[in-house]
Fold this sequence. Notes:
Elements (H helix, E strand, L loop, with lengths): L5 H22 L14 H24 L6 H9 L2 H4 L3 H7 L7 H25 L2 H6 L7 H27 L10 H24 L3 H7 L1 H35 L6 H15 L4 H13 L9 H4 L7 H7 L2 H8 L9 H7 L20 H16 L10 H11 L6 H14 L46
Helix pairs in contact: 1-6, 1-8, 2-3, 2-5, 3-6, 3-9, 5-6, 6-8, 8-9, 9-10, 12-13, 12-18, 12-20, 13-17, 16-17, 17-18, 18-19
Amino acid sequence: MEAVPPRARAYVACVALGALVCLLPVLVPVTVPPLVPVPVTHASWWAVCLLAAVYTGCEQLARRSFAGPFYPVLLAAAFLLPPSAAALVPLPGALLAAAGQRPEALRRIWRAAQLALAVWVAAGVHGELGGPGAVADPDFPYALVPAGAAVVAFCGVLTALDGGVRALAAASPAPPGRRGLFARSLAPTAVHGLAGLMMAVLWRSPYGPVAALLVLLPMCVSWWAYAQYHRERAAHQATIRALVQAVDIKDGYTRGHSERVGQASMMIARELGMDDERVEVLRFAGILHDVGKLGVPTRLLRKDGPLTPQERRVIELHPEYGHEMVRGISFLGEARSAILHHHERLDGSGYPYGLRGGQIPECARVVAVADAFDAMTSTRSYRRARPVGTALRELERCAGAQFDPRMVTALVRALDRHGWHPAVTAEDGTPPPPPGDGAPRVPAKHRAPRAPAASAGGREEAYG
């Protein structure tokens, strides 16, 4: 974001000032005593320079490979050096790395200050618990205790500072996707901490710093593998975006519908207490639920007039087409079954297989509710959007026959808590003209007779 609010700039300035204060014991050692009484010797300065150079190289590689942060070197510095000396290690790498977004200078200063504070706190915690002596002896397994505490402190400082600046930049509390970031970050940071501890132990051993740096080799291999996975996943997501855009072009009346169904599916999944991985899967399921329309002839999607029974059966094949299209995308997981079964109904009157009740996969029941809700609350060329309250009452009326009551209740609670602010809209909000001459024609599939249980949302929900 190029425009950083003044309050966020002030926050960054305060964090940078705090980092500068942490560095004062090595910059002005006479006037400011260090937190932990470990002298900064000539050997310490040599270690600072070597670790800083290694971290700078790792940071440059990380930016090029999109492999994420690489903390073993920083945590090794926290285990080996006094806090103020350790806080110097991340500065060159953070200040020289490309920021990626504007304002670049502010972002570099922020990253450098954030890492310096995190390393300073981690080194202080490690020193207070007797970590340097345990590393030098070495004293295992006790050495794991101060190292573990330092890792928790390091991760906690990064998460707290990151949450603060994001909340100020957005002028709102941290969004749901940012909540629980500490818990998600702790495990990978702990792995980096173990590598950093191995580096520190070898550094203090007779084998010396060269052996310590060899620890980074297996870490770099795993890092490269993760980067390859990340690239593959990004390629799959680009494919998904292309498929959704193709559906929007082919069936233009639902432009943006898929993205909004993905958003509503996420809200339901979070309200049901699903873990982050399943929430992401439900988002993909919602986005891709209508991808099978690519296999339906365009003339049927845009036909003027009622559909014949044969044409209706062709359109009802779109869930199966969609399932076949995404069969090879492994990371979608159960999203594939949601694409296949999102038009099933609890009373067995749905399609393609007429499943009943618990036979319908849970993810498909989530998407079915999200699909109908967005169809009712979206402005279309032939009618105004229904108010959210009206749409929810219609869903509740059909709960138990067409929709899973749990999913409907979860959507109601989620909307009560967060409201409905779709990021993508189907139309520009202009009300449709009144019926009569010159009024836009209603797509034929929406004028087709619907099954008795398909009352929620009116014509358009028969096919989403």
